[in-house]
């Protein structure tokens, strides 16, 4: 189908490989505007087709989508993206020489420079239209700007205001009637309106309530519209050390909450509390899974590391084993609780594995802890949750400001996406841990360095 060129308001978006690997359906999210895929992007995607990681899935799905959209038409011609509100797309098959040739300017025949040349060529041949390079690679965007090419991040699914997530889950009230707090202590609960009045209430929110005489920790039960007292409790001999940890453990142990996210910097006890809570509830679930995504060092594949697959993965899994050993060492070796942990591991009732090993498995009757969730994409988070079967609980832990994955940031990672999209759902609770409890030395690093 020939491309109608009368509408000058239609922009042309040139997509980089990083956008496709982030979301294979990104091509469909540019409204009525047109999309160009450089042939270099298809060549790069070909290298990602094989494997079980999310990036491999995204590459395969995009290639299938392109094949479906193009049908019997040539992909180097403008082809409709299906629907009256959608624009057109095409694959640019070559990288013609131009005045601002990126390969000559930057001195390398890199794929990034070939992609830049496509954008430059379109600017020269489509002078009446705005051309925008879309990439999640900030370095490529900077190079584009040096050539006067307008460049943007892929914004779909990106959290607009990360600061709004800071207050999600916990609230502080210091003007509470002391008699209401006394009632909470005596009865264990109180009607929400007695303390919250007309304030907006969010499901599974936690409160620090204070008066001039007393204080109490509380939890909002939206089903019964009451505030319940939250007490510090032990979980496999691990005791919360502050209010936020008490809230987190309450959410982890609450059978009515099926999805929990815990945000906090290193040393705040996120993974430790999740694992301790899981062990305390081990009789309620068939298995406990503790997993984390593998982020290769310097963005190299783990294949370059020496040894077999187990020795390659051990360094990535060691922090999870450290948490388990810490809990186990709360007991003597002769204690049955100590021996029970060893037994759970040997019988594979407690499994610690890379997240890729668990992907695709059925998640029924499972207590599932996903560590370092900030290194997941929104699509990965959605995929994990969508696999949850009956009697499954999922805990995501991480720090949205400590991203180790290229092309993700505090606004586009899966953990931020989850907190923003699921807040106030009756099955979900979120808590931010603020105080480091690892050691005074660790706190010094977090606060001053």
TrEMBL record:
Keywords of this entry: ATP-binding, Nucleotide-binding
Pfam families: PhoH, PIN_4
Keyword ATP-binding: yes
Superkingdom, taxonomy of origin: Bacteria
Domain PIN, residue spans: 11-142
SMART domains tied to this protein: PINc
Cross-referenced InterPro entries: P-loop_NTPase, PhoH, PhoH2-like, PIN-like_dom_sf, PIN_dom
Keyword hit for ATP-binding: yes
Family: In the N-terminal section; belongs to the PINc/VapC protein family. Belongs to the PhoH family.
PANTHER family: PIN DOMAIN-CONTAINING PROTEIN (PTHR30473:SF2), PROTEIN PHOH (PTHR30473)
Protein name from the UniProt record: PhoH family protein
